[in-house]
Amino acid sequence: MIEFFFDCSSPWTYLAFHNIQPLAKEFGEEISWRPILVGGIFNSINPSVYAQRDNPVPAKLNYQKKDMADWARSAGLAIKMRPSVFPVNSVKAMRGCIFLGKDMLPFARAVFESYWGDDQDISQDAVLAEICKRVGVDPEKFFAGIGAQAIKDQLKANTDEVMARGGFGSPTIFLDKTDMYFGNDRMPLIREALSRAKERAA
Questions:
Q1: Alpha-carbon distance 72 to 80, whole Å?
Q2: Torsions phi, psi for 198 (to 5 deg)
Q3: Distant-in-sequence, close-in-space partners of 21: CB < 8 Å, separation ≥ 6
Q4: Which residue, 4, 90, 143, 188, is most buried by CB atoms nearer than 10 A?
Q5: Would you say 98 and 34 are in contact if contact means Cβ atoms under 8 Å apart?
Q6: CATH fold for the domain made of 2-201
Q7: Where are the domains of the chain?
Q8: Per-residue confidence at 56, pLDDT binned at 50, 70, 90?
Q9: Whole-model pTM?
């Protein structure tokens, strides 16, 4: 089982979301999709992220843009760095993923595409309503659903859980509950870990 803790407001998470699926299929692993609110993590245990955003190192920022473009090209994804609204409030989108449960994948993919590919502000109800229509979700039921206290509580619980297990951002990926990996660039290491597990099981 692969646990994938994610927030659609992260470009590296978009890449990992895309790249982990064929990897899981290759090794016959199921993915448990765990929506979180990465801003809650930053506020609680990783506030240095905000200082880095406010005072970026120009050379590092330039390289990050190139690095993102290289990874996006490799994955065949369109990623705009940075979107017009950045950072973005992803609370409603992530609550939506929880509300949709086992049917969240098309919605989550469309949220990633809309924000990172089409430069749409996913904090806006009108944008989320269009995404819902695109993936066959009733917008009225969607907005009613994400307002439920149980949905809000689950998003917070997921966020608290990943921090309690050592996570500090998005994406955070666990294999076998305790083997943690952070970030899209850990995919080769995840592949090796899955390969070792397969060999042990043979």
A1: 9
A2: -65, -40
A3: 31
A4: 90
A5: no
A6: Glutaredoxin (3.40.30)
A7: 2-201
A8: confident
A9: 0.95
